[in-house]
Design goal:
By secondary structure, the protein is α+β, with helices and mostly antiparallel strands. The chain folds into 4 domains: 202 residues, Phox-like domain (PX Domain, 2-Layer Sandwich); 160 residues, Roll (SH3 type barrels); 255 residues, Up-down Bundle (Substrate Binding Domain Of Dnak, Chain:A, Domain 2), CATH 1.20.1270; 31 residues, no CATH class. It is 41% helix and 12% strand. The protein is built from 21 helices and 17 strands. The strands form 5 sheets. The protein has a 5-stranded antiparallel β-sheet with strand order 7-6-5-2-8, with no helix packed on it. A 4-stranded mixed β-sheet has the order 10-17-11-12. Strands 13-14-16-15 form a 4-stranded antiparallel β-sheet. Helix 5 packs antiparallel against helix 18, helix 6 crosses helix 7 and helix 13 runs antiparallel to helix 15. The radius of gyration is 34 Å and the shape is elongated. This is PX domain-containing protein. GO terms for molecular function: phosphatidylinositol binding.
Length: 755
């Protein structure tokens, strides 16, 4: 990686990152080791020509140079390519686990562990491969030669292995796990006899994410559970070829970083800090390695590119609290707040850059929960209301990312918030997007106390957490609807205050209110109202006597009251449209914890099942149980993270709402008190010194402002949608909308209206 800009280095002081060379991930390596539960032992053979690693499919990368917010949808393979795959002869393989597929999804209907397979296409997308069943180990007939989809992690190649006659297959008793001397225990995979290949995680990308979220309520089209797609299953069953180094040195470095000093600064800026190691402390809870900070998204501006047209650019300002013994940087912007120095760093990003960041974080941190990005917008992207709503959504998104104790120090996030050089941005972003998903290697770098998981307590915690998040989701959704009614009530209150103001002004000026004629008075009487003598004198006082000072003071005080009511009506309207709208938008961030953490719950439950199997008496498996403990520590640390964030979120929401209400009513009270003082001396006495001037609102009596513009609503959350329905039903209804339903004459099609 080339030297970063000074601002980028400054940000690296607060977010320690591990420098690494700019290079593409290796597409091949030497050596492979695996095994299956069968009567034949297989060992690695590195000298055979078949021992070459199969080429991995490269995922479609995000076009980082494009200035458009739109992304191309993944294309489907042609029919000619499918025909070639049917006749192609694949590589021999053997099934590791049993699999029951569904014919309607073109999956292999029945596969047993040990069946002979041919892998025709290794990466068929969504974590599947295209395989042919050659021979069934159980002797089943009727399925030989069947071609269909099979999960990518359910087989192993046999052309890379040879029988090792010297391998001892005698049964042995399972080893008893003993407590470690260290409080932090790395959960690695079993030791390998030779160098192992890096794992190429499966592609678990989603098809048409915007369509999926809006139509299917945020549910994935992938039939795999998150236990599979995150790499947790592969980690539990097979481990990973990456052997983590002892964490002792890193733990010492982390503790010294909290003490500060010149040596601390040198170690932070050096390449010795490893950001890929994640520590779980007692709780379990993630260890905080980097101090918390916040990010402001502000100053949106419209820009134009010759390549993709117009787009919106946002300024991102990261705010850090500098250590008291550190001096401010010469090129940085620092301000003192008491004894604490604040460092600010500003970069400019667009929505497609946030998409790239989210993609990279999802691949590099599969075991943690990331907030969803706001939906794309294809129409009205440059309206003031939408730009402000998008700015707020992006600010909430990035702040929820940086407050996660693990995502906060991710290298790609540091780069995203600190890179000010356009040249370095265009050069480095493709590197981060080209990195393969971590998959099981993420769990290989999670360290936790030894044997700190109890299966029964973990199961109860998972059930309580799932029940709690479902209740929170339902309750917040109800509160969001009620909060919308509260905002509508403020608009109704504004309408009532304005109507009262007009009525009072009409009373003292004898000008009728056009939208509210007085009951019991005919139109002829209204036309002659101005001709009636004695309603107002020459001074504009509400009296039939000329020169009446008392009525003049009363009229002017009532007029001031009417004008104050107009101001109060404006305050109600502005409060509903601006202050309450911001709180209404903030409720989205806590609206769907059940959907957001469903992957954690699924992984937690599936891991517990594997853990019970591995610790069952007479069938113990030490290594699988150890790796299950790592995954359970990860899921329970995520539950603890949600607990901490929930407390912070609802505290902030309650304080924000109450502060807004207090400020609003204080403004109303201040104006009402001013109008009230007009009836007391000396203000009341001074009103009789000059004639009454017409009110600014008298001209509105003929056309009063009693019909305000519609109340702006918050942009919907990505999980706000109708209940999930099959895609075929949605497509059928869409076609029926265009062509009309044959069995329902009342349902007119779109084309039928034009016909």
């Amino acid at each position: 990686m080339p030297e970063s800009s000074s601002a980028f280095s400054k940000l690296a002081f607060f977010l320690p990152i591990q420098r690494r060379a700019v290079s593409r991930p290796p597409s091949h390596a030497e050596g492979f080791d695996s095994g299956i539960n069968s009567s034949t032992a297989w060992t690695v053979s590195l000298n055979t020509p078949e021992g070459e690693l199969r080429k991995s499919q490269v995922e479609p990368s995000v076009n980082v140079d494009s200035l458009s917010d739109e992304e191309r949808d993944p294309g489907m393979e042609s029919a000619d390519e499918d025909a070639d795959l049917l006749s192609e002869r694949g590589r021999p393989a053997r099934a590791l686990y049993g699999f029951q597929g569904k014919p309607e999804f073109r999956e292999l209907t029945h596969v047993d562990a040990g069946d002979e397979l041919e892998i025709v296409k290794e990466d068929a997308g969504e974590g599947w491969c295209l395989a042919r069943l050659v021979a069934s180990r159980s002797g089943r007939e009727g399925h030989q030669g069947e071609l269909g989809l099979l999960p990518s992690t359910y087989y192993t190649y046999t052309s890379d292995f040879a029988v090792n006659p010297e391998l001892d297959l005698s049964p042995s008793k399972p080893r008893r796990r003993e407590a470690s001397d260290s409080t932090i225990t790395p959960r690695g995979s079993p030791p390998r006899q030779s160098a192992a290949l890096p794992i190429v995680p499966q592609n678990t990308g989603e098809w048409f994410p915007s369509f999926r979220r809006s139509l299917l309520g945020g549910k994935s089209l992938n039939r795999f559970s998150s236990f599979v797609t995150s790499g947790a299953e592969e980690w539990v069953l097979q481990g990973t070829g990456e052997e983590p180094a002892p964490p002792t040195g890193h733990a010492q470095e982390a503790s010294s970083s909290q003490r500060g000093g010149e040596s601390n600064r040198t170690s932070m800026l050096g390449a010795s800090v490893e950001v890929e190691r994640h520590f779980v402390e007692a709780g379990p809870a993630w260890r905080t390695k980097v101090p918390a900070f916040r990010v402001l998204v502000h100053s949106p501006s419209k820009r134009t590119s010759t390549l993709s047209g117009a787009y919106t650019m946002y300024a991102l300002t990261s705010i850090f609290e500098a250590p008291p013994d550190e001096e401010s940087y010469e090129d940085g912007e620092a301000e003192e707040q008491g004894e604490v120095k604040t460092i600010r760093l500003t970069v400019h990003r667009r929505f497609s850059h946030f998409v790239a960041l989210h993609t990279a974080l999802t691949r590099q941190l599969p075991g943690i929960v990331l907030p969803p990005l706001p939906e794309k917008q294809y129409a009205g992207r440059f309206s003031d209301d939408f730009v402000e709503a998008r700015r707020g959504d992006l600010e909430r998104y990035i702040n929820r990312v940086v407050r996660h104790p693990v995502a906060r120090y991710a290298e790609v996030l540091t780069f995203f918030l600190g890179c000010e050089s356009d040249w370095e941005w265009k050069k480095q972003l493709p590197y981060y997007l080209s990195l393969p998903p971590k998959g099981p290697s993420f769990y290989a770098h999670v360290y936790h106390p030894a044997f700190n998981v109890d299966a029964e307590e973990a199961a109860e915690a998972g059930e309580r957490f799932a029940s709690h998040t479902r209740a929170v989701s339902k309750g917040v959704q109800s509160m969001r609807g009620i909060f919308g009614k509260v905002r509508e009530a403020r608009i109704e209150m504004s309408h009532a205050e304005r109507l009262l103001s007009y009525s009072l002004l009409s009373l003292i000026t004898s000008k009728p209110l056009a939208a509210a004629p007085a009951p019991g008075i005919s139109e002829e009487d209204e036309e002659d109202a101005d001709k009636k003598r004695g309603h107002m004198n020459e001074d504009g006082a509400w009296c039939w006597r000329e020169g009446c000072e008392q009525c003049l003071k009363l009229t002017k005080a009532l007029q001031k009251t009417s004008e104050t009511l107009q101001t109060v009506a404006d305050l109600y309207d502005d409060h509903a449209r601006r202050t309450l709208l911001a709180t209404h938008e903030s409720l989205k961030s806590v609206a769907h914890p059940s959907t957001l953490y469903q992957a954690v719950v699924d992984t937690h439950d599936s891991t517990l099942t594997r853990y019970r199997e591995a610790t069952q008496e007479g069938n113990e498996d030490e290594e699988v149980a150890a790796r299950c403990e790592t995954v359970l520590n990860t899921t329970m640390a995520e539950m603890e993270t949600y607990h901490t964030q929930k407390v912070e979120d609802f505290q902030d929401l309650a304080k924000e709402h109450l502060d807004g209400e207090i400020a609003f009513y204080e403004q109303v009270l201040a104006r009402l008190r001013t109008a009230r003082r007009a009836f007391d001396d000396p203000q009341y006495e001074a009103l009789g010194e000059s004639p009454r001037q017409p009110s600014l609102y008298e001209r509105e009596l003929e056309n009063p402002r009693l019909f305000p513009t519609p109340l702006p609503q918050p942009c919907p959350h990505v999980f706000d949608s109708a209940p999930m329905r099959p895609v075929s039903v949605a497509i059928q209804e869409g076609v029926g909308l265009l062509l009309g339903g044959a069995g329902n004459p009342a349902r007119t099609s779109v084309f039928g209206k034009f016909w």
